[in-house]
Amino acid sequence: MANEGAIIAEGLVKIYNGKVTAVDGVSFSVRPGEIFGFLGPNGAGKTTTVSMLSAGLRPTKGRAVIDGLAVDVDPEAVKRRIGIIFQESTADGDLTGRENLEIAAGAFGLSRAEGRKRANELMDEMHLTEAADRYSKTYSGGMRRRLELAVGLVHHPRILFLDEPTLGLDPQGRAGFWQYVQQLRKDSGMTVFVTTHYLDEADTMCDRIAIIDHGKIVAEGTPNALKDRLGGDVVTIRTGPTASDLSEMLRPLSGVSAVQRLEVDGDPAYRVKVTNGETFVPQAVEKLYSAGAPVTGVTVKRPSLDEVFLEFTGREYREEEGPTATDRAVMMQRVRGAMGGRR
Amino acid sequence: MLRELGALTRREFIKIVRNPQAIFTSLFLPLVYLLLFGNGFNLNIASYAPPGTPPSVIEALTLAFFRGAPNYYSYFSAGMVGFVAVTSTLFIGANVIFDKLFGIFKRVRGTPAPSAAVFGARLIAGAFQPIVLAFFVLGLALLFGHLPPLNGLHITQSIGVVGAFEILLAIVLVSLMFATAFLTIGILLEVPQIYFAVVNLINLPVLLTSDALYPWGSMPPWLQTASQYNPVSLCVNVLRENFFGASYYPYGPGVYLLGLLAWTGVLVAIAIVLVRRALRPVE
User: Fold this and answer.
1) Which among A36, B94, B164, B201 would be 20 to 30 A from B181, CA to CA?
2) Pick from B3, B99, B110: which is nearest to A54 by CB?
3) Contact of A43 with A18, CB cutoff 8 Å
4) What's the longest Cα–Cα distance across chain A?
């Protein structure tokens, strides 16, 4: 493991109550100034890993080093060097945006004057100046996330942890949020560790990604390198209900490197990795028709992170995508509303 | 540490000021007790005495029954200070639980602010309320004494500097003690329903084994004995001795203050251990 990593995880294991293994031997290293994406379905161990890296959770085994500091040895020093944007909103709705920032600054040991100055700077950077003296409970979802980001940056952290930062935001809000993060990295060289459900975000925003599934890292690399490992196009062929497995029929066709049988909306489907999808489709359709297997749909995809996810976990990413986390965000908003907007 | 404590305490006081409903209800409860319970429950020994009982006998009985207070209302007014110390600190822990549910506590725990600052900020704000309420109660009770036909607090002793200090210290200690207890419970628990069940288990026995509201003379001996060790009684005794004299008390205010100090010290020590453990990175 390289010692110069801004974030180093060495064999992190988290077992809850001696029974449930949430993280199972996770190791990786994030370089300084890198945007590192941590992908995985709900319950894969993303948030648990973030909690162990940010001194919120003690690992059952393994070691985390942040900016050269062992998390278990000096958690307070680690907390001073990192900023965290949690999955859920943590801004205090009864406080104004400015007060949220000033109090967070104080909690990080900044003086009142420093906190006030920093709050003004961040409000300006996040385009929240006009709303600075409004209660944060009146903010839109995008404004709230920007406030969360500002709170996470109030003490000039060297490393930023973003746990599902754009969950529940509309596309415009997501784009805006990422624009700030990219700018931050450009301006300050900050290291960013981000967990996300949105594979397109990870694809375009992250320098490198790791995919975690069932507590283990199943793939790691740059988005392009991971996609290249799929080796060409991915063709998905849906057929009508049929008793036999048609995989063996597809495998000998030219350019095929792998065939995987799936089920899409209750019908059989075949995910075929081929060097050239456009030339493969006609011969595949002809072969299947001649065998009496009705083809009901064909899609050809250039490799995406969805395909990468499927390749390494054996499951469609969208099947795992987050009703739990999203529902929780919606529920929290409803609870807030039911309480008359308090907190 | 002080900056962290200052910032987090500021947050707590902003929350108090921004919640006028809570301020109103916290003032309303003692007002109702002083106005209705105190007047409605006002025991007049003279009305139970047989005709022809000498006034001196009635006075002696009254003083014995109410431990030197000239009437029940005066006796009860001092008791109300202990009563509000318990009732106004009940919800402090619930606020922590709600802050946990809404993620606000998680944010604080993500900062390097020491657990002493996290706890201390809430303790300062939590103890502040019963201290203010105590003086509100005493002020209102004194005012009622000048508004016939209402009953009110009649202080029969002159209170010197030492006495005033003893009263202030007793109020501060009892407020800190109960704020510490309920805050610790809130930090340890995660579910509001369980919190309220637990505080109800504590709240009623503590109040009902004290002599805050019961006339001393009507309490059975076993309850009188039990109440001697009750922190609410210890606070109230300091006030009553200073208001009405020490003749009916086995010990001086200093002893009761020491008892209260011991209670507060023990609870703070327990809180330090439990809160530090609770605020460590989760196992």
Assistant:
1) B164
2) B110
3) no
4) 79
Q: Note the pTM of the prediction, 2 decimals.
A: 0.76
Radius of gyration of chain B (CA): 20
Give every CB contact of residue B148 below 8 A, 6+ residues apart in sequence: none
Same fold yes or no, A7-226 and A231-302: no
Domain ranges of chain A: 7-226, 231-302
A69 close to B (CB below 8 A): no
- Count of positions (residues) in chain B: 283
Q: At what angle do helices B92-101 and B192-208 cross, to 10 degrees?
A: 180
Q: For chain B, 283 residues long, give each residue's pLDDT as a single digit of tens.
A: 888 899 999 999 998 888 888 888 888 888 888 888 888 777 788 788 888 888 888 888 888 888 888 888 899 899 999 999 898 898 889 889 998 888 888 888 888 888 889 999 999 998 998 999 999 989 988 898 888 888 888 888 888 899 999 999 999 999 999 999 999 999 999 889 999 999 999 998 999 999 888 888 788 899 988 888 999 999 999 999 999 988 888 899 999 999 999 999 999 999 999 988 888 766 6
The answer, for A306 touching chain B at a CB cutoff of 8 Å, is no
Distance CA A12, CA A58 (A): 10
Instruction: Confirm whether the ipTM is greater than 0.95.
Output: no
CATH architecture of the domain with range A7-226: 3-Layer(aba) Sandwich (3.40)
Q: What is the dihedral of CA A197, A202, A205, A208, to 10 degrees?
A: 140
Indicate the CATH number of A231-302 among 1.10.1530.10, 3.40.50.12160, 3.30.70.1340, 3.40.50.150: 3.30.70.1340
In chain B, what residues touch A54 (CB-CB under 8 Å)? 110
Domain boundaries, chain B: 2-278
